[in-house]
């Protein structure tokens, strides 16, 4: 906690909730305090539920989301990894049960030479989360924290299991489960990677929350592409045009992008449907073995988004940069480099 925060008079739940109910916005420190109370178990289930519902009903702000994220990270188990590193992740919540596109895109980027520190968990709103699929592929998830950087060095990719790094989230589990509706917590996972990557490619299914997530990343000073399919998919998608928020130098630039503009065929949501973890793991193997079609296209597109976010130069238009990154992603698959990254990952975690 910062010295400024320590010196301030802390609010109370009645003042926080009264402000939100009246439609007032919290400042970053108030949001930080409230989330700190949740994370440390000092808030009752009623207070947690009231806070999440009041915040969601009013509509979150960048400052509020930033305060929540900072408090969550302050209560996470630390992980220090130096150098440029990338995370490719989605918020979930689109309820389309697609295959694990961001996981496959992460492997492709690792094959292309990027350092990937992936933050993920088991399935919440889909049939198979990243952790479920990686486990089915043979990646060991219960690695000691002090070995994760060694795994990264060996395979260009490592995994931060959310339930290991954020044990304090258990204090909100009951009210979240009993509420049964999306809250701010649903959008915090991609923003709370404990390694704090220097670049992120984030899919967000919620049109209102996507620019707020970009705003949090801009305030953090990292590079990112936040995107949403216009059909509601939390992926950089070939099924519809994409709304994109590019984060660079503390600024957010919004644009529209259609994968057809870089030579990709339009797909349907049915083309991208997945199944359980065993089914989705087999899809991963097939894509890394060179299978072509709509799933490969989606994987290549999301890998390209990650490579563009990681690239510090930003020379050329977004379309030009995605075109060049697409070629790198395709080569990582066709050369076998992405498959070798998975094999190295499995070996490094054995």
Automatic annotation (TrEMBL):
Cofactor note (record): Binds 2 magnesium ions per monomer.
Substrates-to-products reaction catalysed: N-(5-phospho-beta-D-ribosyl)anthranilate + diphosphate = 5-phospho-alpha-D-ribose 1-diphosphate + anthranilate
Cofactor annotation: Mg(2+)
Domain Glycosyl transferase family 3 N-terminal span(s) in chain numbering: 15-76
Pathway of action: Amino-acid biosynthesis; L-tryptophan biosynthesis; L-tryptophan from chorismate: step 2/5
Domain Glycosyl transferase family as annotated: residue spans: 84-338
Keywords: Amino-acid biosynthesis, Aromatic amino acid biosynthesis, Glycosyltransferase, Magnesium, Metal-binding, Transferase, Tryptophan biosynthesis
Keyword Calcium recorded: no
Chain positions recorded as anthranilate 1 binding sites: 90, 121
EC number of this enzyme: 2.4.2.18
Positions that bind Mg(2+) 1: 102, 235
Residues engaged in binding Mg(2+) 2: 234-235
One Pfam family from the record: Glycos_trans_3N
Molecular-function GO term, any one: anthranilate phosphoribosyltransferase activity
Positions that bind anthranilate 2: 176
Binding-site residues for 5-phospho-alpha-D-ribose 1-diphosphate, renumbered to this chain: 90, 93-94, 98, 100-103, 118-126, 130
Complexes and interactors: Homodimer.
HAMAP family given in the database record: TrpD
NCBIfam families referenced in this protein's UniProt entry, alphabetically: trpD
Family of this protein: Belongs to the anthranilate phosphoribosyltransferase family.
Protein function: Catalyzes the transfer of the phosphoribosyl group of 5-phosphorylribose-1-pyrophosphate (PRPP) to anthranilate to yield N-(5'-phosphoribosyl)-anthranilate (PRA).
Protein name: Anthranilate phosphoribosyltransferase
Organism of provenance: Paeniglutamicibacter kerguelensis
Gene: trpD
